[in-house]
Amino acid sequence: DQQVKQNSPSLSVQEGRISILNCDYTNSMFDYFLWYKKYPAEGPTFLISISSIKDKNEDGRFTVFLNKSAKHLSLHIVPSQPGDSAVYFCAASELYNYGQNFVFGPGTRLSVLP
Amino acid sequence: NAGVTQTPKFQVLKTGQSMTLQCAQDMNHEYMSWYRQDPGMGLRLIHYSVGAGITDQGEVPNGYNVSRSTTEDFPLRLLSAAPSQTSVYFCASSFRNSDLTDTQYFGPGTRLTVL
After folding, report:
1. In chain B, what residues touch A105 (CB-CB under 8 Å)?
2. Residue A109 burial by CB count (10 A; 0-12/13-18/19+): exposed, middle or buried?
């Protein structure tokens, strides 16, 4: 059973609009969450993270929201740009667990249309 | 810095063959790991190492061996390749931040096909 779920395999958004990518988790021990971005033929690259003591973290056009009671997080990209077209992975781990073995979701493919 | 490097980029094996996927990092990171990515499955942890001489199993370790003789290198060995091991393999290394979070860097991946 997947501990980290991304129920939308794909998402298309018009350039300049908001992209919202969702992620749900089942393990209540998870307290650190990350988003990775992956282009074809490249490895994932870290985008933004949030720990469970916060409910929001911003970095430029990217904001991650965490709802612990719902075990749900979302990534907002505003405004969306064609270069944001990629696969986005949500990942979760237990903070303070040395090595922090991350559990990844299956990914959401974002297409930003010009 | 080259970051995390992986070789080869592509490999085709026949069932039963063995091979080693190479991974190296030049950032002096203690923690390294191997993942496989399959369609609809995300990245799944195969093996990881918290330092030279120390390795442990991840979620899907069967059919793979690892060793960590140096901080820089973390090779992944397929003992007897099976079609189920057809996948894209990613190596990663990470360091611990002052707030005890980890920042993880991935290599470009090795696409393996087992016939």
Report:
1. 42
2. middle
- Beta-carbon neighbour count of residue B84 at 10 Å? 10
Interacting residues of A103 by C-beta distance below 8 A, sequence separation 6+: A3, A4, A27, A30, A91, A92, A93, B45
CA separation (Å) from A12 to A79, A81, B98? 14, 12, 37
Mutate: best of A7, A54, A104, A108, partner B, most B CBs <10 A: A104
Please list the pLDDT of chain A residue by residue as tens digits (114 residues): 789 999 999 999 999 999 999 999 999 989 899 999 999 989 999 999 998 999 999 999 999 999 999 999 999 999 999 999 999 999 998 866 655 678 999 999 999 999
